[in-house]
Amino acid sequence: MIFGLEFPPIENLVEWPNWFGPKDSFYGFNKIAFISLVAIVATSVLFILGNRKRSMVPKGAQNLVESSVAFIRDGIVLETMGPDGMRYLPYLVSLFFFILIGNIFEVIPFFHMPANARMAGPAVLALITWAYYIAVGLKHQGPKYFINAIAPPGVPKALYILVVPIEFLSTFIVRPFSLAVRLFANMLAGHILLVTFSVLCITLFTASLLALVLPLSFFMLVALTGFEVMVAFLQAYIFTILAAVYIGSSMHAEH
Amino acid sequence: MLALVNVFAEAAATDVNQAVAEATAKNPILPVMNEMFWTLVFFAILWALMKFVLLPPVMRTFKERADKVRDDQQAAEAADTARVDRLEQYEAGLAGARSEAVKLIEQARAEGDAERRVQVGAAEADVASLRTEAAAEIAGAKERARGELTSSITDIAVGAAEAVVQKSIDRSAQVSVVEDYVAQAGKN
């Protein structure tokens, strides 16, 4: 109870029971897993519709698919990695759509839960990205990648005492952690905000004078819903562009 | 004593472990294994689909469109070059036709001048011939008139003399006198 509001416990907002599978099993399928499944189904359906009647002048689903891919290709891959990064486009497009659709479920009626407001999704995606950019570094630079990553050439030797631990922490520890936490925290915060104003609206929907404040609360709920749509897109973009930057930085030794 | 400490220590450890376990189980921030598993599985599927099934047609469309744009641009540039060539050919043809026309005009003018000169020459010759004929006719007419005049004057003079002298005068003898007179008068 906060200022008279009956606010649900946090675990009630983000934890979902399994639809099938034992409670603590590794394959228990719940709402979050279902949203992840919808993410691949929706992305696949969108691309299949877009690829069904390909024409030189795109329309409808083809236009949406091509605009999205062109946005990631021109705005992320070519900007951060150049033409050499085109081979990583499938990974980055998958990442973008998987996160975006997972996020957008925050405002979809009857779901109202972003998959990335749970730490599992962002953590897995961050770990895959972490493994991926290390693999790219090893592929392009060989074992010297680790040396180049933590001891960039051109730095005065005395500074290596400071630079090596900082670069090690930054590149191999902080990057995946910050990737995961940024996405998770933003989506969780947005989810809690929407829940808060929803609860406020329900509480104010009474026959008392409190009902006078209801329009304000409802307006905030609508405005925040729109804001969360933007956040959903923005967080997908940020995660994808950071993944591209990390992969791009692994392709060549830093100067 | 030591056993008592161990008992307490074990009890404390058990409490701590339980507390940690409860906190971990209830902590909504920590990732849970089943969600990680499904995220990993579904993302891996999406990545594979994207790489092998979903994205290649889009990239092919991009490539075909870029090729078409490039081909159309090249065709437009070729058409433009052809247009410029054709224009140059047309202008060269036009200049040739112009010079040919000037040449023909000059040739026609020269031919016209030559024809005119021939015609004028012929006309002048005709005129001279007509003039000669006319002069001859005039001379003939003059001669005839003079003969008629001489005859008339002779007749008048003889008639007048016969009237004056009241006798007949030999006309043939007077003709030469009158002719001399007329000839003399014509000279004066």
Automatic annotation (TrEMBL), chain A:
CDD domains recorded: ATP-synt_Fo_a_6 (cd00310)
Q: How does the entry describe its membrane topology?
A: Multi-pass membrane protein
> Which compartments is it annotated to reside in?
Membrane
- InterPro entries listed in its UniProt record: ATP_synth_F0_asu, ATP_synth_F0_asu_AS, ATP_synth_F0_asu_bact/mt, F0_ATP_A_sf
Give yes or no: UniProt keyword Nucleotide-binding. Answer: no
Major place of residence: membrane
An annotated GO cellular component: proton-transporting ATP synthase complex
Membrane spanning residue stretches: 26-49, 88-113, 119-138, 159-185, 191-214, 221-247
Could you tell me the keywords of this UniProt record? ATP synthesis, CF(0), Hydrogen ion transport, Ion transport, Membrane, Transmembrane, Transmembrane helix, Transport
Instruction: Write out the GO MF terms.
Output: proton-transporting ATP synthase activity, rotational mechanism
Q: Which SUPFAM superfamilies match?
A: F1F0 ATP synthase subunit A (SSF81336)
Q: Which family does it belong to?
A: Belongs to the ATPase A chain family.
Q: What is this protein called?
A: Unannotated protein
UniProt source species: freshwater metagenome
TrEMBL record, chain B:
What is this protein's function per UniProt? Answer: F(1)F(0) ATP synthase produces ATP from ADP in the presence of a proton or sodium gradient. F-type ATPases consist of two structural domains, F(1) containing the extramembraneous catalytic core and F(0) containing the membrane proton channel, linked together by a central stalk and a peripheral stalk. During catalysis, ATP synthesis in the catalytic domain of F(1) is coupled via a rotary mechanism of the central stalk subunits to proton translocation.
One annotated GO molecular function? proton-transporting ATPase activity, rotational mechanism
HAMAP family from the xrefs? ATP_synth_b_bprime
Q: Name one GO cellular component term.
A: endomembrane system
**Does the UniProt entry include the keyword Amino-acid biosynthesis?**
no
Per UniProt, subcellular location reads as: Endomembrane system; Membrane
Q: What is this protein called?
A: Unannotated protein
Q: How does it sit in the membrane?
A: Single-pass membrane protein
The record's comment on protein family reads: Belongs to the ATPase B chain family.
Q: Which residues cross the membrane?
A: 36-55
Q: Which InterPro entries match?
A: ATP_synth_b/b'su_bac/chlpt, ATP_synth_F0_bsu_bac, ATP_synthase_B_chain
Keyword terms: ATP synthesis, Cell membrane, CF(0), Hydrogen ion transport, Ion transport, Membrane, Transmembrane, Transmembrane helix, Transport
Entry's Gene Ontology BP terms: proton motive force-driven ATP synthesis
